[in-house]
From TrEMBL:
Transmembrane segments: none annotated. Belongs to the DeoC/FbaB aldolase family. DeoC type 2 subfamily. Gene3D superfamilies: Aldolase class I. This is Deoxyribose-phosphate aldolase. It comes from Phytohabitans kaempferiae. The lineage of its organism: Bacteria, Bacillati, Actinomycetota, Actinomycetes, Micromonosporales. SUPFAM superfamilies: Aldolase (SSF51569).
Amino acid sequence: MTATATSAALADIGRSDATLRAFLHGLPGVDQVGAEQRAAMLSTRSIKTTAKAWAIDLAIRMVDLTTLEGADTPGKVRALSAKARRPDPADPSCPAVAAVCVYPSMVPVAAPELAGSGVHLASVATAFPSGQAPLDVKLADTRAAVAAGADEIDMVISRGAFLAGRYQEVFEEIAAVKDACGSAHLKVILETGELATYDNVRRASWLAMLAGGDFIKTSTGKVPVAATLPVTLVMLEAVRDFRTMSGRQVGFKPAGGIRTTKDAVKYLVVVNETAGADWLDPDWFRFGASTLLNDLLMQRTKLKTGRYSGPDYFTVD
């Protein structure tokens, strides 16, 4: 079967519940022990100093600098936007981050701060983090964020519907949100900590991509179990295999619990060894993080100067 024929066949999968269910349950099962052992093995890889400097700058460029708190204020969002543009004001060679991620109500605050900077503006939507709202509310949430200036939307799937086996419902919801995004990119959050099994993670990954997601994302960061390396491995295998079958590349974003440079490097190694070097780019891989950036900046300063900056040298977000 040609790539065009395969792509057309994949497009037809979501047209009926029976076809979608048969496809998702026909995916190869995940070898839990194998996935965990491979992730553990890859996490032990070390990199040399020159490669580490490159990896740190790449990781900074991949950060979605995030604030998603009920106490967020316009002043905090403006300060975060300034940091996104110039993470280290003392070092103009330090790259900007990929995006700032905020609630929809804060998009109008961040938009003028980021205009012309090259830093994307992402907004969570669709009743984040629970996803428990009617579809028309989710679509209105999405349209409002895009109209206010967001060029990326992070939506969360209805885990209850997915776990109940209502795959067509989840598919149609993702497709509708994608349509509401217009030209904005859509990141689909699976909330993998609530999906219970690696097989469910694989199925949800494929479901999100089949429905039109531009990225698949592990977590909201609001549940106890967020991104893990084995889950990352499973999702990266899914984006790799999806591109092989469809010809369309989909990005990946782990979020929640990634706090140190050492953690970030482990994820970059897993990306390179599982999906390949094509994903080592901010267009295709992001870190959903709020505390990671400061550690990256501290390690970057140490490599350049031989001295650690104090933890209070960079702003606490």
